[in-house]
Amino acid sequence: MAKSKRVHVAVGVIQNPDGDVFISRRHAHLHQGNKWEFPGGKVEADEDVYQALCRELFEECNITVQAAAPFTAISFDYPDKQVLLDVWVVTEFDGAVRQQEGQEWAWVPLHQLDAYPFPEANQPIIERLQAQTAR
Ligand SMILES: Nc1nc2c([nH]c(=O)n2[C@@H]2O[C@H](COP(=O)(O)OP(=O)(O)OP(=O)(O)O)[C@@H](O)[C@H]2O)c(=O)[nH]1
Ligand SMILES: [Mg+2]
């Protein structure tokens, strides 16, 4: 079987002052269509992952990232695609978060994320976010 290339994806966890997380629903025709996601997208050849994160969050959510911290990296093989989700928590940004690509969106408290179907690769991200706040 030919080896396909793993897609490097910059993913941003954006929280509001209440700690709710911003998520969007992937368009039906896309890979993992109709599932919920954290904003982000593919790292282009001329970028590093942080540059990709900033670009994607501006394109998709209209915010200018001022600071972000690496959170986790998830390598996951779907039957049809291999991804590396490079997940960052956005700690400072300018602008108001606004879904720019016509996707359904929601601000969700961490403990309610389980009610939203995410791609399988996202499970450990969600667990880790929830573990951080469970005291
Ligand atoms: N943005 C994002 N992508 C995710 C998540 N979880 C996950 O498995 N992915 C996968 O990562 C891959 C790339 O994400 P993407 O579709 O946002 O890429 P992109 O914005 O560059 O899209 P484009 O190719 O339409 O320009 C997709 O195969 C998607 O299914 C997630 O939480 N957020
Ligand atoms: Mg995207």
From TrEMBL:
Catalytic activity line of the entry: 8-oxo-GTP + H2O = 8-oxo-GMP + diphosphate + H(+); 8-oxo-dGTP + H2O = 8-oxo-dGMP + diphosphate + H(+)
Upper lineage: Bacteria, Pseudomonadati, Pseudomonadota, Gammaproteobacteria, Alteromonadales
Amino-acid positions noted as binding 8-oxo-dGTP in the UniProt annotation, renumbered to this chain: 26, 31, 37-40, 122
Gene Ontology terms: biological process: DNA repair; DNA replication
Gene it is expressed from: mutT
Record has Magnesium as a keyword: yes
Protein's name in the database: 8-oxo-dGTP diphosphatase
Keyword tags: DNA damage, DNA repair, DNA replication, Hydrolase, Magnesium, Metal-binding, Mutator protein
Keyword Cytoplasm: no
Binding site for Mg(2+): 40, 60
